[in-house]
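Protocol step 6 of 9: fold each sequence in the batch and record its structure tokens directly after the sequence line. For illustration, a two-sequence batch is reproduced in full.

Sequence one:
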Amino acid sequence: MIGSEPEPRITPSPNIWHWPEVYERENRAQDSTGALWGALRARCDWAGRDVVDVGCGDGFHLEVFAESARSVIGIEPHAPLVERARRRVAGLAGVDVRRAPAQRLPLADASVDLVHARTAYFFGPGCQPGLAEAERVLRPGGTLAIIDLDGSCEPYGKWMRADAPRFDPPAVERFFQLHGFDSEQVRTVWRFDDRAELAEVLGIEFSPKVARRALREVSGCALEVGYRVRIRTRPLGLLRGS
């Protein structure tokens, strides 16, 4: 499948690649209400099915899928995170972690039922190669589910735009609509043990100036954060172009 094609470009993650321990605490704080998992399960229940988590990082979400899925494969391009993920899921039946980029999944055609990606790779224009790979490995009727932060939702979106003034949330939404996705806004709550933990997480997500501003604007140890849950189902008949 790969042949002599050039290696795909991998963009380093600005947070988990450098601060995996802090990102672990961030993962634990996110979705304290369970709203994201509830929205995902309502649209594409993975019980008894084969799941792939693209950009799985250190495998935080693999255990949740493994509770009811038939099989779970985590895909991650960064070798240190692959090793952390493998240690996390060691002993879990039907769970595997493989090192690969989203643009070149080490999976057979039409071999999985759900391709899931959460705040990883699929950020809008430019992710077309990954979309095509997801479509390739999905069985007819299978689902590609992309969960990402909603850059239009305050206050988190305001801080994102402050650090990335060229970031255009409406343009991102138009991109995914053009590529056949249904998008649902889901609000959940990040809940931390204390203010120090909150400050630590904001510090790996934003520039120092914006992180300080964000900390001032959050009272207590919790904040509401908006996401987009984007769903596309592979047709049962002919392939759809990506």
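Sequence two, same batch, same settings:
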Amino acid sequence: MRILTPRKKALYTLLLLISACNINAQDQNITVNQDPKFEQLLNEKRKINASISVNDSYKIQIFSGKSDEAKKTLIDFKQEFKNIDGTIIFNTPNYKVMVGNFKSRIEAEKNLVEIKRRYKNVFLIKPSK
């Protein structure tokens, strides 16, 4: 390792300061050319998105527990209730089996009565708003 003399240190420091003064940032002038119809489409999309409610359906939870048991429960459910869709959701530390995608509470409660005959610990999940 070489040790610099005070004279060389001063020279290198001076060169560093001079070169730092000459550094310029990039120009920030950007021109974007876009079709006027793009803004119209974007506004239409915003209107559609505002009218869509993402989580407005009722679901029924039929199981909460370990992964293997959740998979088995979902398979059994799909064999017995072919017209009702189901899914597994992981919510630490449990896997939950949620079934249905009911638009109204009345429809969900009708199916809840049927499902309760087969599964013991079932309950209705309200949509979160």
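Proceed to step 7 once all outputs are recorded. Observation for sequence two: Helices lie at 6-21, 36-51, 67-80, 105-118.
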